[in-house]
Hints:
- By secondary structure, the protein is mainly β.
- Helices cover 0% and strands 55% of the residues.
- It has no helices and eleven strands.
- It starts with a strand and ends with a strand.
Amino acid sequence: QVQLVESGGGLVQAGGSLTLSCAASGSIGSINPMGWYRQAPGKQRELVAQITSGGYINYADSVKGRFTISRDNAKNTVYLQMNSLKPEDTAAYYCYIVVLQTYWGQGTQVTVSS
Length: 114
């Protein structure tokens, strides 16, 4: 019933930027919490950022000052602007939305190299 489609991942040099997008569709409104997790091989899943329709935002300490989460409520789309990327940011990034349950995007790979 609910689908999330991610895009924007890719290969970027250290210090570069990427913008991830996640479009949600189905039986959802504009007040649902949305956000991004990431997971790198051998590392624990990490909540990167989350946002409500009212604009309340939380970031992981590791990305504060470099990443910006935003949403377009009319489009039910959440974005993650990633600046000053580091090799440590390399991971699979998954967006999510909480409705009756949590739905996940398919993941988009971000690889940061020197």
